Amino acid sequence: MWVLPLLILATAVALSIPLSRYAAFVMEGRYTAPRLLRWFEQRLDTGPQAWKQYTISLLVFNTALFVFGFLLLALQPIMPLNPLGRGMLSPTTIFHSVISFMTNTDLQHYAGEQHLSTFSQLFFVIPNLFLSAAVGLCALAAIIRLLRGQTLIGNFFVDMWRVVVYAFVPIALIAGVLFLQQGMPMTYRSAHEVAVLEPGSMGTTEQGDPRSQTIVVGPLAAFVPIKMLGTNGGGFYGMNSAHPLENPTAATNVLTTLLMMIFPMALVLMYGRMLGRLRHAVVLYTVMLVMLMSLIGWSIYWDTLRGNPALTARAAGDVFEIPGAATAGGGTVLPIPAATGLPVDQHLGNLEGKELRFGTSAGATFAAITTTFTCGAVNCEMDSLNPLAALSPFVGMWLNCVYGGKGVGMINLLVFLIIGIFVTGQMVGRSPEYLGRKVGAREMKLAMLALLVHPIMILGPTGLFAATPWGMNAVSNPGPHGLSQIVFQFSSSSANNGAAFDGLNVTYGFNNNPHPAPTAAAWDIAGGLVMLFARYLPIIAPIALAAGLGRKKPSPVTMGTLRDDGATFGFLVLGTIIIIGALLFLPVAVLGPLAEHLGPIPFGG
Amino acid sequence: MNLVVWLPAMLLLGLGAMGLCLAFVIACERV
User: Fold this and answer.
1) How large is the ipTM?
2) Which residues on chain A place their C-beta less than 8 Å from a C-beta of chain B?
3) pLDDT for A259-297, tens place per residue?
């Protein structure tokens, strides 16, 4: 049970060290590419940029991605490679999906195998998986150069080229070959029609003949490597990494888990290498590792080592009354499911929604990792985790700096770090400094702006949707679990994570769908805006912060300087993250997963 | 959904939101 997470952690740490060296090598421009690739690189080079030009280039590039993606999805019905005749998604779903993939969130209000053609998967999804993943890494590189005191920080388009072509493509190619060997499909064919073993189990035609089964396939071995490596997480199939063609074996499960971890881990060390302060980066890396191990251990303890109490604690046929004013009698009466009274053997833990072919603790491990690394792929049903186990994914997304996404996780930690240093400086009566430069009012204003976007984008819409029919008509469970579904959706959107708790009825589907989810449009629009603002504002503010900080003259190190490469500094960072995280999100954790855990069975216990 | 209304509306909403992010860059410079 513990072997799998320990193996994954140890391997990821081991791989992140050489990868950090290579990432720094590429981002410093020391890699000499073959002549053809160099020619392309030179064509993209519009000259060195100051921070504002770099940031505006980033935004303009993303705006172009938005327009391209929007047009491509809107034109899906008339595009080639669409033998299954996929129609046009509703405009709000197009809006949500385009922003979702452009912002590296990949939260899907559709099911890939039902709603997208092979053309859309190839030319809308896959390019976005590469490009959106590179944006965060470029933003981090810009911040590092600014903190070094540079005023011209390279060229955004050249950085994008280097990340995609010299870093992502080679690793994705190697992973793709390994996935092919493990049985992952790689084809331009859209579907296979197969006769099922039990004729008639798929129903019968009007003539009474047994129906065949349509199995959607596609270029999965090209899709999945960058889906995981870029911490994208959007699935080719609606079932994501629980689908036997998207994650065929226990080996692919381990490999996909490693792929989503290696870049965010390596980039913390790259930060230290490029700044020439590797020991400082090792402290930050260790703080993140401690938090990651805690979150994985927590989810395994509460999910793999514990059964689901709702399955065994009450007799079948019993009824359960939810207090409240939902009915005239003052409560809602629900029958306990018939399965409740069955003698379920739960010695392997909570098995609801798990893929045991990956291992007993694979679901809980993956759930913690995919949310801390802002990947969002899922190999188990998050909605079925025991309430306290579900707290681990929540915390990973709320803090958003336990390695986090590529580049942006380190940027988020930098914001926590600046705030921690400032508060500590005030407490001991010394001028707060980071990298020898004084942290002043401007830096604090920008750090607070960057920090507060995330909780505002989660808690604001959650409150609105929980209090209106938009949310109440979409949740599939009453009480705290229903609130958890709403909070998770906005946490996942704001963290640019993309994991789905499921249970929310938010799919509109094709525009001509006669029975869409009644509040799908509201969820599409709100989710799209949350993803967009929560992506770019916390990138822009830290770049501006680093620009100001980097311009300041470094102070000489004295006896009174707070060392940033020791255990004390590590505890300072850890304490800042825990205190700020608790202040921001503890109330909603109490109303959601904690209330569910402490509440009566079947929803709690 | 009426495509004539919703399709351009969603496109403009996305472009407008990106425009706000651009304005945020200018605002950050002035902080």
Assistant:
1) 0.98
2) 52, 55-56, 59, 62-63, 66-67, 70, 74, 88, 90-92, 94-95, 98-99, 442, 445-446, 449, 511, 521, 525, 528-529, 532-533, 536-537, 540-541, 543-544
3) 999 999 999 999 999 999 999 999 999 999 999 999 999
